[in-house]
# Entry
Amino acid sequence: MVQLRIALAQTNPTVGDLEGNCDSVVAHARLASDAGAHLVVFPEMVVTGYSVEDLALRDAFVSASVKATHALAERLSAEGLGHLPVVVGFLSRREGPGPRFGQPSGAPQNSLAVLHHGRIRLASAKYHLPNYGVFDEFRYFVSGDTLPVLRLHGVDIAFAICEDLWQDGGPVAAAADTGAGMLITLNGSPYERHKDDVRLGLCQRRAREIGAAIGYVNMTGGQDDLVFEGDSLIVDADGELVARAAHFEEELLVTDVRLPRALPGSDQLERTGGFRIVRYTVSDQPLAPYEARRPVLTPRRDPLSDLGEVYTALVTAVRDHVRKNGFTSVLVGVSGGVDSALTATIAADAVGAANVHAVLMPGPDTGDGALGDAEDLIKRLGLTRRLYPVHQLIDALKSAVAVEGPGRRDRLTQARGALVLALSREEGHLVLATGNKSELATGMCVHHGDGVGAYAPLKDCWKTLVWELAHWRNARDAKEGRIPPIPGRSVSRDPIGAWDTVTPEVPVPPAYEVLDALLDAYIGTDQGAAALVAAGFDADLVRHVIRLVDRAEHKRRHYPPGPKITKRNLGRDRRLPITNRWLT
# Structure
């Protein structure tokens, strides 16, 4: 067995910032070298950021990525890091004949490169291209057909990219055929609740299947409606966890592993399972024994609970959306309710309380209790308070258009939305929408009202989860001896909200637990009316909830992006026509 020190660089790239991303690679490669690492591996598409979407179809962007990766190899060598093999993900294009019919123009590829002594020594493209959920990689990329194998101090290490590990066969099977002692995958795997357990189980299963250690390096940080939690890890050939990085933090995970020497003659294998084996040798000779580092099995802080993990994902997403888009402050309309209170609290944790402008917009029907709760929230968190009564705006709207009935409520929220947007335009704050997934699903959100904003932190949170997160956040501060940020009345269980104004002919559901369970079954698993009724939901409620969801598709199209935390969000995970007469 040969001892090697492997570094997995869990970084937070920004899409399109090729220079900044390469700066980060150099900085982390230097840390890895200083730690005595023999190899450092970065996440999928780290040079360009991920996901680049239709930027992949722009020839100039592909060319810039290729150029930046060559320049990165030269820079690493010039800065005294050429001795260290560095593996990065980047955007390249397939060489050879032009693209076939139905393939992306320019044949872009989601690729990895092994950089060593100033040059790209190996390059290979992702084979399995995911085309489900938030992924459209058939649209953007052309599959690769090579498996890269690096011989490092007498050990063969194979590499693959993200989905290649999740699918049976393909590069995983090819790596087993080469006899590689370790398979390392470069990943841009978005966060979903409970996914970390699935990820660890996958790596353990693959390790036992191929009889080799598995390294899994994932990016961290937020990118539009995706958030990446990191959770990079290494398991040995028996599937035992050796080291694991933190969630939602940049980290260099440096670990000593013991791997088998490459089998004599194994480098003579040129093809297997439809893959061409491409190789590069750093050294055939094992290293002299050295003192191993202590494995890192858990984050340096306490492991996150389930709700703590979700809350941290939301904070990470807001922080990076604000920072990466060049903003320094946010604006939140606070009403005294739990949705706006939780949104403001997340924002304060993400960008600092002083940078959160909390706008109070009392109207004719605003009660003293709600206004008092909003004021209390601002005081507890130390937010920047802004008071703008909207009576005059409502009077102006009334003088222009007479509206009666449920439309009066919409007029109030639309007046508030207009005010928030005006403040954003004049002062440059990024506006956070405060609606939750239950409202967005059923259409309770109001056009140009609740949905006003550039980012929606609670977009993928059912109302029941909003309450759970608010209680969790308060309990955390109480446990640490601080005053909880969200007033007690804001987190108390309200009635089913505006249900009677949206669908007065249907009895109010007994609780949000019932409504959210029904919505989750319909939206999350595509169950039809008959299946939902068979599952125990009231037949009248099922029919009317389905009707509300289907009729609100136009509202969801116009709603701002927000972080995905479930398997199926109301965005790229679920794409339905607005004009649709199909009744389930």
User: Anything to note?
Assistant: The mean pLDDT is 90.
